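Long-time lurker. I teach an intro course on protein structure, and each term I like to show students one example going from raw sequence to a predicted 3D structure in token notation. This year I'd like something fresh instead of my usual example. Would anyone be willing to generate the tokens for the chain below so I can use it in lecture? Attribution to the forum is fine with me.
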Amino acid sequence: MQSIFKEYLFTKHVFVCESADLAQAESQAFETVFSLANLFGISVTKGKDLARMEMIELAAKELGVNVPEPFYKGFPESVKSLTHEELLFDQLVHYAKTYGFGYFDEPGHSILERDYERLAFGERTVLKNFEIITEEEAVKLLATYVEGLLASSRPLNQKQFKMVCEYCTAYKYRVRSCASKNTVVQLLVTLRDLYFCRFLKLSDTIKVADDLNFADYNFNENLRKLNFRNQDRKLLTGVINACFNAGRVDLATCYEKKDLWCGLLHHLHYKPINKEAEDFVREMRTKGNHSVYAEFERLLRLRNVRGAVDVLAEGKGFGAVLRNLDYIVSRIEDPKDLSYVLSKLDSKNNLILMQLMLHYAASHGPAAGQGRTFRFARHGMLRAHREDEWEKARRKSQLPQKTKDVLLRFITENLERNLAGKLGKVYVDEDMKKIALPLQESTSQGGFGVLSKGSRLPLPEGKKLRGFTYWEKVDDIDLSVIGLDDEGGQIEFSWRTMAANQSDAICYSGDETSGYNGGSEFFDVNFDAIKELYPKLHYLVFCDNVFSGVNFEACFCKAGYMMRDEEDSGEIFEPKTVSTSFIIDCPSTFAYLFALDLEKREMVWLNCAKGGETIVAGATSLAFLLNYCEVTNVMNVYHFFELMAREMVADPAEADVIVSDSEAVWEQAKAAGDEGKKERIQSFDFERLLALMNA
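-- Reply from a regular --
Happy to contribute to a lecture. Here you go:
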């Protein structure tokens, strides 16, 4: 079985015993199970007799073992023992050798660090429960994941897409349906298979061209500057012809991007294959715009809101009305028109409804006098645009709170009606109130311990959090922490500031700038101490950026965090204590990792690849990230299943569906004796959650 499938299943707490290894498994079982527990804190709860030595290698790869040493080998104690002047001198000498004289051949280390003594590791750790299954079982399990991901109308993250793509190739899987145009286009572009055209309309060709242009032409995002190779021109021509042959020609939608179509057809030297294609080419090359949105805008300018909504609903569907709701409602002058608009919103698209629910319930708007920040995803990366003074003075779409409340109430009632009674008897663990639904994961990195954006994990007392990053194939990646208060103020903790800010509250391992063959950086955060030292701070945001300027996907970089005793053993990286570890391989130079809520003592998942070429943290405002921190207050996994359940039960043994990460709860459910009829859903089962949200 390919490594990509084993790695994906590892994130689901599953090992695979390959068919060829079944005969030898029993002879290695005891040693493997013992080593997994001793080295990584992994407890095998099922399939112990299938354990193989290769599983130790996989765990080491995913959780980290031979992590490069940071600048201070005795972090954190050796850092705390040095003065501000010594810390600064150390780094200046290191910078002089590397960026000054260009000496990057060997990892740099402190020249003033004192000797230190490590203790035997004896910290308290939490076991990670895993199962071992056969290869045949693994292929079936992967099939359910693939089908769940393809059922989602939301774009997939890179790890999910790569798994789907490889599964289609390795197991000759023919996609029968796919709800997301983004996923279809990615599959078409990656596999070069015109089979996927059956899920597209003619207007989607522009998106195919956009993906090709971004992926294969030095990240050129400007579709107006085309320079496709012949093989790509043939692919695009094949897409266009397939749509004409199948009659999937949505001319009104093509008008929306008429200029782009005109340029694309010219670049392809396109020759029409039938009368309909000839008419289309002529229409794209002549003046005039007959798109749905053109008529929609014309009617809005005439203050005919009802007519505009009718045109949009008829031409683009109810989903388009929902997506443009702010814009439409902001143009309403007659209160009766709001009731009419709401009557046109009988949408069954639960994903859009939930996203709007988060939008209207968000409490973190712009500070007084500041412009709004708009978040959107493009090519799997987060983009943020902040209003300038010109835009702020002319904006019309900011709604009063009273109107937001009306919309929120309507959307909530609609969602409750759509979901009601979809499942039978359901048991949901209280912990699921802290887990967010996977509504906005396209910009995420995948890996062990990764949860949906906005998910919160309680952090135990007596522990500090050690954030980490380590890398190869690049000289300098920076781990930084940005402190945010509730008024939008920021404090930067990074290589630029930490020489003067090292303390028991927050401690940094030093700026490693010669790590081509392996470098690492760490931050320790002690919750009680940092709240005392910085009482105004509410959140700490961990960021990773490639100071060397290349994209993450051009190197190897891992990030995550460990939970360590406040007085730790001195072993800087200990796999047993790793709570999450994931590869950052996005086509950009900056990523938001996670945030710490200092008031609630919780970790909040951010996990966003940021678009652009930012190579230094702290240069822009991060206040817009605060909206992710309140996601679970609006909608969470517990509430979602509460809406879907025909009956919520307190005893797992009575439930048809058990939503819990607890092994004890699952054992209690199985005690009823009908395990095969019960479904277990855990916090990391994105695929099942996506399928249910799109049902």
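Some talking points for your students: Residues 428 and 659 are 5 Å apart (CA to CA). The chain has a mean pLDDT of 90.
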